[in-house]
Amino acid sequence: DVKVTQSSRYLVKRTGEKVFLECVQDMDHENMFWYRQDPGLGLRLIYFSYDVKMKEKGDIPEGYSVSREKKERFSLILESASTNQTSMYLCASSSSGTIEAFFGQGTRLTVV
Amino acid sequence: RKEVEQDPGPFNVPEGATVAFNCTYSNSASQSFFWYRQDCRKEPKLLMSVYSSGNEDGRFTAQLNRASQYISLLIRDSKLSDSATYLCVVNTGGSYIPTFGRGTSLIVHP
C-alpha cells in the first residue's frame, strides 16, 4: 500500500521560530510537492521537486524554503514563522509522467 | 482567470438523488484529469481518473469535454457517506504539476 507520511499531525509554534515539516514517501516517486490549504482558497502549491536536490517554486513560495537530499524525503522550512502561515500543510508525491498524486495526512500548523 | 474553477457549493441533496459537478480548466494543452475526494480535516484521496472516453465506477461517472474545456462528475443514488468535498485536478499545460480546483462541497441528507 502506498504511503506518504508527514512527521506531525498538529504543530504549534511561536512567531519567529524556524519550523521544519518533514515528508517521507515509500513509493520511489520522482515528484514531490508541498501545498497549503486554507478555507475558501483551496490547495496552493508552495514548492515542488522533480528529483533529488532539485526544487522549483510554486505559486506561493515566499517565506518558505525546501530541501530534498534524498529521493524519499522532502522537507518544508518556514524560516521565520508568522501568524499568516497558520494553515494545513499537505505533502504529496507522484511518479514521473503523471499527476496522480498521493497525499500525506497533513500537518495542521498554528503559529501564535 | 483561475486555471481550474469549481462551484464551491454546497450542494445539498437528499439520499438517493443524482448530483453532478463541473470543473472548468483554462489551459487547452492540459491532458490529465482526475477527481479527488476530501473528507473534513483529512487529506485528499484519489476518486477516479477522467478519460477522453469517459469513466464509470459504480455510482460515479466522470466525463471530459475538451471542446468546452470542462470535466464533470456525476454521482447517482447519493449516500450519506458521499458527503465530502470533491476536488478536480488538471495538469498545467505540458507539465506534470497537479493543479487543484478549490473543491465543491456535497452534503447528502436523510
Mean pLDDT figure of chain A: 95
Output the radius of gyration of chain A. 13 Å
Strand content of chain A: over 45%
Largest sheet of chain B: 6 strands, mixed
Shape of chain B: globular
Order of helices and strands of chain A: EEEEEEEEEEE
Mean of the pLDDT scores of chain B?
Answer: 93
Cα end-to-end separation of chain B: 37 Å
- How many helical stretches of chain B? 0
Percentage of residues assigned to helices of chain A: under 10%
List its traits.
heterodimer, A: 112 residues, mainly beta, seven-stranded mixed sheet, 54% strand, globular, B: mainly beta, six-stranded mixed sheet, five-stranded antiparallel sheet
Structure description:
The complex is a heterodimer of chains A (112) and B (110). In chain A, the strands form two sheets. In chain A, strands 2, 4, 5, 6, 9, 10 and 11 form a seven-stranded mixed beta sheet that branches. Chain A has a four-stranded antiparallel beta sheet with strand order 1-3-8-7, with no helix packed on it. Helices cover 0% and strands 54% of the residues of chain A. In chain A, a hairpin with a 3-residue loop joins strand 4 (31-38) and strand 5 (42-49). The model of chain A has no long low-confidence stretch (mean pLDDT 95). The N and C termini of chain A lie far apart (37 Å). With 112 residues, chain A is mostly beta strands. By secondary structure, chain B is an all-beta fold. The termini of chain B are far apart. The model of chain B has no long low-confidence stretch (mean pLDDT 93). Classes of the chains: A mainly beta (112), B mainly beta (110). The A-B interface holds A 31, 33, 35, 40-43, 45, 48, 58, 90, 92, 94, 96-106, 108 and B 8, 32, 34, 41-46, 49, 87, 89-91, 96-103.
